[in-house]
Amino acid sequence: MLVPLSWLKEYVDITLTTKGLGEKLTEVGLGCEKIIKTSDDTIFELEITPNRSDCLSIIGVAREVAAIENKKIKLPHLRQGFGGQAKLRKILPLTIKTDFKINPRFTGIIITGIKVGESPKWLKDKLVKVNQRSINNIVDITNYVMLELGNPLHTFDYNKIAGHIMTVSQAKGGEKFESVDGVIYHLPKDAVIISDKEKVIDLCGIKGGKNSGTFGETKNIFIRVPVEIPNLTRRTSQTLGLRSEASSIFERGVNTGGTIDTLKRAVDLVLEIAGGEIASELYDIKSEDFKPWKLKLRIERLNEILGIEIADKKVLGILETLNLSPVLKNNIIETTIPTYRNDLKIEEDLIEEVARIYGYNNFPKTMPIGEIPTKQIPYFKDYKLDEKVKNILTASGFSEIYTYSLIGEKELPQGINSQNLLRVDNPVSRDFEYLRPTLKINLIKALSQNKSNFEKINLFELGKVYLGKNLDEAKEAYFLSGITNNKNFFEVKGLLEAIFKDLGIKMDPTKYIEILSEGIFFELNYSEILKNINLNKTFKPLPKYPPIVEDLSIIAGENIMTSDLISGIKNQSSIIANVSLLDQFEDSRTFHIVYQDENRNLTGEEVARIRSKILKSLQAKFHAELKG
Hints:
17 helices; five-stranded antiparallel sheet; 29% helix
C-alpha cells in the first residue's frame, strides 16, 4: 500500500517527522517497509496485515495517524442526498436482479450526459504517486475514490447494458469473458458475475468487462458500489491467477456500511469533472441494515490480559481517537464499532487496540513467571533423533531437501490411482492438487532437475506422507527416503545398517531398497521405526590385550550370500571379535577378521588353528576354498 504524505495531510494534521511517523505506523501494526523521497512528496510503503482491510485506503491510514497523534480526522465533504425522483429531469430505467447469498449489498446510481475525457492534473498526479495509470476521467475517479475511502466501485456504460437488465449470479463454468483491459478468460464454476440480457458484463469484485466499459463515446453511466463475499472473490481470483486492488480489498472484507458514502463521493467528482446529471433513484438493494455493532470491554479483563493497569481516562481516550465512541459504566466500557472495522469482533480485539495505541514499548520489561514444566507434552517430538539420523546421512554424502506436500496427478507413478489419494477441494493449481502418498515422487523429480548441473547426486528427505482416500481414513506419518545415482546397492545397505545400529533396531535393510531406472532408492516408515528404537547403550571398556588381524580371500559360488559366509566364519571361535567384507572381485571375496581375547594375549599358533578350522568349515558347508 503506497501512501503519499501530501495526500495523507489532507485528512489529518501531522506533527511527527517523516521518520517518526514511519516508526509509529510500524509500531501500531502497519509495517512501514520503505519511505520513498520524491521531488515534491514523500511516499510511505506499508505492509497491511490481512485483518486490516480498512487500511487499504488513504482515509484508513489517516484514521490510524489521527489515533497516534490524538487528532481529529477531516473527512471529504459529501452531498446530503441524491434528490427525490420528482426533482430528476430525466429518469433512465434499469432492472436489477441479485442474490443476497453471493451479493449482500448492491448500491448504485445512473448519471446521464457525461463527457469522457482526460482527467485534471491534480487527479492524474495523485494516481501517479500510487503507481496508478491514468485512463480517463471516469475510470480515474473510481480508482481515486477506492484508494481514498477503501470501497471498490465500478462504472458501466449504461447504453451497452442490453435490455437495461443487470443480473447477479454465479458462472456455470467455461463462460468466455473479456476484461476491460482486453484479456480473455474462461470463467471457473461459481465465479460471481453480472449479466445483461445477452452476455456477461462484469466479473464481480475483480475486473469489469470490456463490453460494458467506459470509453470516449460513453454518455450515460451506471456507478455500482457492491459488497462482495470474501471467499468467493478469493477463490475466483486464485483460479484465474487474476488479482486487482479491488479483489485485495474484497478478499479481506469490505466496509459494508460505506457503500452510500462512497457513491456520494464518486457522484460529486463525476458531476464536477465530467458534467452530467443524476438520472435515476438510488439503488441500495441489501440483505440487512449494515449498522455499527456494540462491543464491551471489562477494565478488569483489560488489566489481566495486558499485565499492567492503564488509567481509565487513558483507555477511554485511546478508544475515542479510534472512533469507537466509548462509554464507561460500572467498570465496563461499551463501544460502538464502525462498519469499516470488521476486524473488531470480540473483547480481546478491543484489548489489542488499547495495547497497540498505548505502545508496546511502554510496557515494563518483566521476566516470565511460572514453573518449568516437568511433564512431557502429548505432541512432543524429539528432534535429537532426527538430527542423529540426518547426521549419518550427510556424513555418507547425502544432501537434505524439503519438497512440497502437494503434488499433481500427472506426477503420480504407475500403480498409484488418484482416486485413492487425499485431494484438496480448492487447489491453487492442478500441480498442487493431491497430498503426497510417498516421498519418492519429489525425490525423483529433484534428481532429474539436478542432473544437468551435478554428476553425482545423493538426496534424502525426512517428511510427512498422507495416506487414505477420504477424511475418515486419513492419517499421516513421517517417512525417511533417499535417492542416489552413484552409490551401489551395498553402500546403501550399509548406510541403512548404520542408521539401524545407531537407533538400536534389528531390521533387514534390503527390503527397504528399490532399484529404479533413475538410481538406487530407499524409503522407511520413520514413524513406525521410532516405536522400536532402543537407545540404551552398554559400556564396554577397551580391551587390554591387542588383537591379531588378518585378511582371508575366499572363493565361493555367486549363489552363496556374504552374510552366510560371515556367520560361518564367526561361529568357529569365541575369540573372533569381528568379521567384515573387505573386497569382492568376481568369485573371490576378501574378509577382514579380527581375533581378540579379553583376558590374554593370543599367539600365532592359536590363530593358525582357528584359521584351519574356518577353512574346513567353509569347505564342508559352502564348498568354498582359500584363494591360492
